[in-house]
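Assemble and predict.
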Amino acid sequence: MADVEFRKVRKAWGKVVGVADLDLSIRAGEFVSLLGPSGCGKTTTLRMLAGLEFPTSGEIRIGGRTVNDLAPGQRDIAMVFQSYALYPHMTVEENIAYPLKKRGVPRGERGPMVARVAEMLQLGPLLGRKPRELSGGQQQRVALGRALVRDPKVFLLDEPLSNLDAKLRGHMRAELVELHRRLGRTMVYVTHDQLEAMTMSDRIAILEGGVLQQFAPPQEVYREPANRFVAGFIGTPSMNLIDGQLAQTGGRWRFEAPGLALELPALPPGTPGGEACLGLRPEHIAFGSGPLEARVALVEETGHETIVVVELPGGLRLTGRTAPGMALRPGEALRIAPDAAQAHLFAAGPSGRRLNAPAAGPGRAAASVSVPASAAHAGEPS
Amino acid sequence: MARRVLFNLFAWSIVLAVAFPLFWMIVTSVKPQFELFRRPPTFLPDTVTFEHYRTLLARTNFMIYFRNSVILSTVTTFVVVFLATLGAYSLVRFRYRGRESLAFLVLFTYLLPSVVLIIPLYLMLVSLGLSNTILSLVIAYTTFALPYALWLLRSFMAGVPEDLESAALVDGASRLGAFRDVILPQLLPGIISTALFTFILSWNEYLYALVLVNSDGARPLTTGVMSMLISAFNIEWSLLMAASVMMSVPLIVAFAFLQSYLTRGFGAGGVKG
């Protein structure tokens, strides 16, 4: 068990920057996910940790020891690849025993160690088979077994579940969490699937364009996204991000966009006015009553909830979610109430930083909603 | 139905056209001398004799040429496969300046006609003091077998997933260890095809052997049999055919043994996605 540290780690191929000055401290025993869209640098980061790529500059430490110049085999790590990378000409048993063989474990001791892992992952009956004779799920377990057979300082997992079908994926997610709890080992997990990151990790590192956007526990990433990118990336359906104008009048902050005006709770002193972006989670829009007029544009029934897309008079579209059974039809007019207390505010631009403090909790703070000045109740204080 | 018959006729006529010379070669090699030029010719010999084979083995240099050819082709094959495997590994796995240009430069040398290269090569080998040796032929054959072998193995190597090597490295293997444990077994069908190709090329080569070697001690089968049995005045047909049969045997044996290897192991599914 060991901590992992990236210090100003940078990876560039000529002018193309894969990872830009990454600072990341992973505690010993922690389960950390590297999450981001494809091409964000998460796999490069993992491969640098594994020693399969070399950083252009910066320092990588495992257990307090700088590993920059160590070969992958000397770093005391184990890795599960997205492709599983099982050796096709070896049996399952030989595959699992390979890391032991390469580290000079005597032949006699390998058997019991392989047997222990095989029992843990229910691979016993498959030990004599070749990888091509296994199903995807079985191959995945063998890949896991090859990593678990030793007791490395850090486990690296590169999208290990992405080739499994949805049901098996859910099952393996739970298995991995259980495994991490039981072994207590440091695990670094690369994924583009936010559900995996949210459900499994102690902390999530969100990357975009090679830059670390936020590194925090899952709930914090969801409740307090550090910037607009994280806000839009985490959550399904994703957060409504509305570009508009932020202005302060008489000590009260007000956000305006076409067809929408919100009075916001107090913002930290020094908050700049002008162009800004307001973020609203779908669950923070109430349907049926409220100050805003809207028209239903789209209804998606998922079974356990209903996703509703509404259009405001100004053409702005908002996504909300409600309990199933609410009979809404496209084209229908209805009133909606955004919860301004739960609103997130970001600076303008695609990765604008967060401007407001997070809402205290689900309760409503002193905030209110007003219809835009152009609407019927113009000028009336709400 | 008629199309099927036509197609079958067509296919069989091609098979016959290809197979008949081989059949005639074998038949001629076992016919007694007096039956060879009988008119009309006999398709199957009236009497079968192996006297030509006996003559060839006992009273000529055939066995020396045969030994030369075996040494020559085997050594060339080993050298070419060894260099091409490592070269292909480098061309596929490492990134360095001029990698692609290097690969194309190698291919370009393959595209040059051998008659253009043969005189300079001969002069170089003479100045190295290697003329008239088997080694000179090994070097010459390597120069034109290697480019093709390199390209063949490069495509095989590109088909071996990089993750396999990465996994072996993480599992504690050295680069060379990963190469031996993981890449080489995956590459085996490619290596065997390349080896077979190189062996056949060296076994059948004539032009270089004719120019570079002119002593019986170093002559391979192709030029040896030619100079021994074909003169301006006479062609020893029966001996020539017996020699041809024996020249073909090693290739047929090699194919028979390796054919299963060539088809086996392709697309083994260790990696998904």
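Chain B has eleven helices and no strands.
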